[in-house]
Amino acid sequence: MSNVMGKSVNRQEGRAKVTGSATYAAEHQISGLVYGALITATVAKGRIKTLHLQEAQASPGVLHIATAENIPPLSPVANDWATSQIYESRLPLADQEIHYPGQIIGLVVADTPERARHAATLVQVEYETDTPLINPKSALFITAPRTPGLEQGDTAKSLETAECQISATYTTAMELHAMMEPHAIIAHWQDNNLTVYEPSQWVALHQQTYATLFGIPPEQVRVVTPYIGGAFGAKAFPWPHGILCTAVAREIQRPLKLVLPRQQMTMIVGNRSATEQHLKIGATADGQLLAIEHHAKSQTSPVNPTFAENCIAVTPVMYATPNLSLKQEIAILNVGMPTYMRGPGETPGMFALESAMDELAWTLGIDPVELRLKNATPVHQRSQLPFSAKHFADCLQVGAEQFGWKDRPQQPRSLTRDGKFVGWGMAAATFPGLRFMASATVRLFPDSTVQVLTSANDVGTGAYTVIAISAAETLNLPVENIRVEIGDSRLPNGGLAGGSMMTATLAPAVVNVCEELLKQVNANTTTEALQALQESGQPFLEATGSSQPGTESREWAFQSWGAHFCEVEVDEPLGRVQVKRWVSVMDIGRVINAKAAASQIRGAVIMGIGDALMEECQLDPHLGLPIVYDLATYHIPVHADIPRIQVSFVGEPDRNFNPVGARGCGEIGITGVAAAIANGIYHATGKRLRDLPMTPDQLLGM
Ligand code: MOS
Question: Is pLDDT at 702 greater than 70 in this prediction?
Fold first, then answer.
């Protein structure tokens, strides 16, 4: 019996956001605030010979300039996800070396943001420059040390003897997270206590990391992040600008605010690495897969020399084959650091794999939906564990039905409308089901309202509402009765908003604690608990507890599934592609909030359309600096680029995964989107595009 779970519930924080009363990091009002501006390197590799600061120091309003010469020492962090984690393993201003263009080389503090920014432009830098490595074509690629490959069977031989073989290379461009809320921080020291107002996907670890860096106990660090304007993987850990801002605030004993301009956000707060993927698939004439070879390359930066865009993660998950050869290689270039970005690995990986599957389907003359149904695997081919509550086939069949796939004309270039070619494409989607530990406190008040407290945060995904729904469902109360307080490290550890795991992590924790609260007063219902509360004379009943994974992942592989179907229109003389129609069907276990879950998928499909057709951060080949510098030069979709996106869910609660049965939802929506569009473009035009983004020049040049 479900009261509210699975229904469509409006966002708890929606009104605050649209009326402007939601307070983002840079908007907190602190008296005595001063402002920072970064000085960044204009060369890609070398070292600073001389920094001429005199003019900047004499500039009106300047209070302090931090450089490698005067930065107080910071304590090293373990970088282990358990105690402390930062993105760049090199601490800010650690020495005079330059590893990538845009690297922070100083921070100017002034009494207004404008004066700080102006003074930063007055700093003259003399460099000793080395030849940077910018172009991956000249780079040495090595096996990614933290991203294991896989060799099963004899892939080379199987490919050679297969009746049908596909071999193709796919590339994807460097991308930026380009979230609405810029990276920003206010660091406020009072004696030896630090308050940090900074967007964070992982409040508890953020707190611990600052504590480690500044050599103080975690109780003396408070991270406040009630609202976050998008993160996509780039706000999980402290970046150098945040660490530096906090160090300088301590040094000058003033609350210090630093907001990154868009141009700096293209350089120093992460990107998605460009990739190059070589895919080979061998199959029988009737479409049984025999072998897949997937060799992928990505790039990283000297400040994080092991990071890989793990494209091959999806390959052992999707299709059964006795022979598998997976390899992930990286090259270390003098570029800004790549990091996790929505569907890290899965997004480019599924572009290549799902494009190759489409190429195979055309070669064999088999319907691409049939080809996928035929080859879906019941077990994860790395662990050999069975997938729990897998309903991939339903995604494909329901999606095909909703879209009208069976009416698809069999030949490319056979559908036209208003002088444009029309094409239909489809692709699968997938993302692992991940879960972590979370704690929460729940309070029940005499007026039957409830307060839920946890440090978890809402990056725009709907965590506030998931928490409210979980409490309302368990206590059988209207969702309006639940007040949710999150995004503050003083609250119980709410875990990480990343890997699409917050719902699967938090919902079981909140349910647990609500049940515990009833149990504490021997109540079977909330009404009984309220009676007990009245008798006790206490102001409220309170329970605190947590929930975490057990041993279930020794028996099961947890994975979410989906299918995208789209219609594209191609204006061939202009090379212009427009997406006209979209159907996504997802199996994410139990849906907690139907409205928010569909919105998550819709947002991810929109981001996928950007990934497919627009997004690229090209670098100047000599300087290595991004040639995009704001949200006008970095192209992302606008309303006119987006069709109606029809989203539905199939499947069942995955109770092997957690008691609530939710696998979470967010990143899966972007996976497969670019392939569905590329496959649609092929159907429309007979042209196979294998390089993202698929810009008009590619269609004109063929
Ligand atoms: Mo997401 S890339 O797991 O924050």
Answer: no
In this prediction, residue 67 carries a pLDDT of: 98
For residue 2, name the pLDDT band (cuts at 50, 70, 90): low
Instruction: Show the tokens assigned to 488.
Output: 């503050």
**pLDDT of amino acid 1:** 46
**Tokens standing for residue 421:** 């070619």
Q: 223 with 213: CB under 8 angstroms? A: no
Ligand 1 centroid to Cα of residue 236, in Å, is: 8
Q: Which atom of ligand 1 is nearest to the CA of 201?
A: 4
- Quick check: 617 pLDDT over 50? yes
Q: Is 667 a catalytic residue?
A: yes
CA 150/CA 293 separation, integer angstroms: 10
Q: How far is the CA of 83 from the centre of ligand 1 (A)?
A: 19
Tokens of residue 512, six digits: 């647990």
Band the pLDDT of 215: cuts 50, 70, 90: very high
Count CB neighbours of 530 within 10 A: 18
Average pLDDT over all residues of the chain: 97
User: Which long-range contacts link 162-165 to residues 24+ away (Cβ below 8 Å)?
Assistant: 162/282, 162/283, 162/284, 162/290, 162/291, 163/283, 163/284, 163/285, 164/282, 164/283, 164/284, 164/285, 164/360, 164/363, 164/364, 165/280, 165/281, 165/282, 165/283
The whole-angstrom separation of Cα 226 and Cα 56 is 36
The first and second tokens of residue 127, run together, are 């460099």
Confidence of residue 410 (pLDDT cuts 50, 70, 90): confident
Q: Ligand 1 pocket check: which of 342, 496, 611 to mutate, most ligand atoms within 8 Å of Cβ?
A: 342
333 in Cβ contact with 300 (< 8 Å): yes
Hey, is 51 helix, strand or coil?
strand
Measured from the Cα of 501, ligand 1's closest atom is: 3
Cβ(443)–Cβ(485) under 8 Å? no
Q: Assign 66 to helix, strand or coil.
A: strand
Nearest atom within ligand 1 for CA of residue 344: 2
Secondary structure (3-state) at 564: strand
Backbone angles phi, psi at 660, to 5 degrees: -80, -30
Task: Name which of 332, 311, 537, 580 is nearest 446 in CA terms.
Answer: 537
Report the sign of the C-alpha dihedral through residues 640, 642, 646, 652, in that order: negative
Specify the pLDDT at position 535: 97
Distance CA 474, CA 517 (A): 11
pLDDT band (50, 70, 90) for residue 582: very high
Q: What percent of the chain has pLDDT over 70?
A: 100
Probe target for ligand 1 pocket from 177, 269, 340, 505, with the most ligand atoms within 8 Å of CB: 340
Q: Is residue 320 classed exposed, middle or buried when 0-12, 13-18 and 19+ CB atoms within 10 A define those classes? A: middle
Residue with the smallest CA separation from ligand 1 atom 4 is 233
| pTM score of the predicted model | 0.98
pLDDT in tens, 260-300: 999 999 999 999 999 999 999 999 999 999 999 999 999 99
* Cα distances (angstroms) measured from residue 639 to each of 80, 351, 603: 41, 23, 12
What φ, ψ does residue 676 adopt, rounded to 5°? -60, -40
